[in-house]
Amino acid sequence: AARRSLLKIWDKEPGKESTLLEFRRELAADTISCDDVINYAHALMAAEDADGGRSTLELAAVLGHEHDKNEVSFLARHTARVMADDEAYDAGVSNSTRATLLSDPDDAPLAAICSSLWKHAALLWSDVDEAFARSNVREATRVTATGKLRAAAVFTRVARALNAPATILYTTAVEGAPDVQVVCVSPPIVVFGSRLLEKDGISDLEMRFRLARAAEQAHPARIIAAGQPAADFEELIGTLWRVFGDGDSEAAEIGEEQHKRDEQIRQKLPVRARAELEELLTGVASLDPVRFRQACERSADRAGLLIGGDVDTAIRHSPD
C-alpha cells in the first residue's frame, strides 16, 4: 500500500523515473497480480527496455492479460533475437548472481552436504554402466561438443554461462527417453534424447531452456539429487543421516543389509570427508530429500528462464 501511494505521489515528478521503475518491479514481484505486472511492463516499454518489456508482457499474457495495440506493436518491434549455435553468452553467472537468482530457500542444509560429498564423487559414482542402469539410460552413444550435433554446441555455451562443471555428452534414440537427462556419475553425464537429434525436432527457445536446466542440475550441489532416481537419493540421505548425523535411533531399526550398505559408503570416504560431513550435520534436526529435490527442480527452472529469457517457454516446459 505504501509503495502504491508513493507511485501516485511521484508519478509526475521529474527525476523519479528510475525509483518509480524499481518500485513497480518490486510491487509486481511481490503480488504477481496481472495489474501490477502490466503496469511494470508499461514502465519498461516507456523506458525502451526491449528485453525487460517483452518478457514482462509475456508474463502478463500468461497471467491472463490480452495485449492491446500498443503492446502488440512493442512486441513486434522487439522480437527475441535468436542466437547462433556457437555464439557465446555475454557473461557468466557469478557466485553472487547464483546466490541471488538460482539458489532456493529449501537448499539448506542438503545443498552444502551434497556439495561436500561430491568432492569425493569418484569414490562413489565412477562406473558409467552402473549409473546408466540406475537411471534407465539405454543405447547411449558418446558425442563431442565439437561435432555436428547442434544441441552439443549450444550446451557448451549454456554450461559455460552458468559456470557448470565439465560434463560428458551422450545421445540416445530410444523411444520415450527424456529430451535431456542428467546422470549422477563422475564426471557428470548429460544425455540428449531423440528430439534433440533431429534438425527441427525442438525450437531454439525450448532447447536452451532444457539445456540450461541440465547445466544447473549438473552443479555439485544438485547432481546427486537430480542425477539419480528419487528412491536412490532418499536412501543415500538416510545413510548420511544415520552415519554422520543424529540418526542413531533409526540406525538401530534398519536391517542388516542396509547396515552393510551404510558401512560401505562410510568406508569409501576419506577421514577428511567424514569429518566435514559430521560438521555439516551437527545441529541439524532432520533431512528432507523430497523437499530438496523440489528445490533443485525450481532452481533448474530459474536457470532455464535466465538463459532462455522467455517466460512462456519456461512455464510451458517446466516439469511442474
Describe the structure in your own words:
- The model has no long low-confidence stretch (mean pLDDT about 90).
- About 60% of the residues lie in helices and about 5% in strands.
- Strands 1-2-4-3 form a four-stranded mixed β-sheet, sandwiched between helices.
- The two termini are about 30 Å apart.
- About 35% of the residues are buried.
- It has 18 helices and four strands.
- The protein has helices spanning about 1-10, 15-30, 35-45, 50-60, 70-75, 95-100, 110-120, 120-125, 130-135, 150-160, 205-215, 225, 230-245, 250, 255-270, 270-280, 290-310, 310-315; strands at about 140-145, 170, 180-185, 190.
- α7 (about 110-120) packs antiparallel against α16 (about 270-280) and α11 (about 205-215) packs across α17.
- The protein has about 325 residues and is mainly alpha-helical.
Largest sheet entry: 4 strands, mixed
Order of helices and strands: HHHHHHHHHEHEEEHHHHHHHH
* Strand coverage percent: under 5%
Distance from N terminus to C terminus (CA atoms, Å) equals 32 Å
**Number of DSSP-assigned strands:** 4
Mean pLDDT: 91
Percent helix, as a range, is: 55-70%
Tally of helical segments: 18
Oligomer: single chain
Coarse shape = globular
| Physical arrangement of strands within the biggest beta sheet | 1-2-4-3
Radius of gyration, CA atoms, in whole angstroms: 23 Å
What structural class do helix, strand and pairing data support? mainly alpha
Low-pLDDT regions:
none
